[in-house]
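Re: the 353-residue chain
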Amino acid sequence: MGRLASSRGYGLTLSKEWEPTVSIIVPTYNESPVVEKKLRNLAEIDYPREKVELIVVDSASSDGTARQARRAFEEMGFKGAVLEETERRGKASGLNTGLKRASGELVCISDAECLWNKETLRNAVKYLSDPSVGSVSGVHASQAPGSSLPVGMENSYRSIYRAVRIGESKIHSTPVAEGEIQLFRRADLPGFDTRIGGDDTDAALAMVEKGLRAISAEDVVFFEPTPGVWGARFRQKIRRGQHVIQAFLGHRRLFTRRSTPAGIIFPMEFFLYAVNPILFVPFAALTIWVVAIFPLLLYLALAGLAVIVLVPSLRQMGATYLTNNVIMLAALYQEARGNKQLTWEKIEENRLL
């Protein structure tokens, strides 16, 4: 569905000349290795500086992040503020602190570790010139050097992920958003739910519940480091998978809207994220049982496995499918045991890229 739909347009009436004021909120926690680079990147965007308000919200960092951000503010002449929370309560709480301070017509959220192309913000803004759109997010481009298997698998996964998100957006809406860049009209956004870790997906689904569209735009590109080692990749993706599930469960009312495009897309995505990994376990067990009973099938299975191992593209696809199911099972387990991961440890491997 994603690949077929991605060749069509979004069906929107857009104005490239529309230049509303934008409040960019960047939540931080112990971001001293990256915060200055992030602010320099924002200083280079192709959008009128007088129409951009930058709000950095630091959640009780212990490494001088707020001090570095203030120094960068003075050096680069940003309009806005660096706000400091006295206690770390999670990303959604930090975003709400910034939202109270925001004065722009549009609100844009962005993570400290990601970077944008110069035209990324301008490209994103134009989609909100159509009143039917409530949320705009972008597409990921990896910054990871080298060709390790974790990086290769992530790039393979992202190419499929990107096609699906864009395809769903062109049909109507995609339920999964990217907090590396996400824009809203300030009037449409009362706040972020502090009980849900997936603030980006939760906010996108809130827009869909309002009757607005939530889209991923193919010309809104951001760059984010991809962990090059297994442990870091698993930790990051388990947390993100769990946060998507939290957001889906928080907007389960969308299951009742079967007559709308969003009401069809949402259950399909919920199946892929939450149901398919659970079904994967009995399917794998059944496959092992059948192969054990019928020896001929064992030889066929081994031959098929040999082909997958020997062909790089198949090996990468097979490893991606297997690890994604394992990751989502771990995410479901974390959610079931009540470990919400609303605050989390930084992926230090990303800081070395």
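Confidence is low (pLDDT under 50) at residues 1-6.
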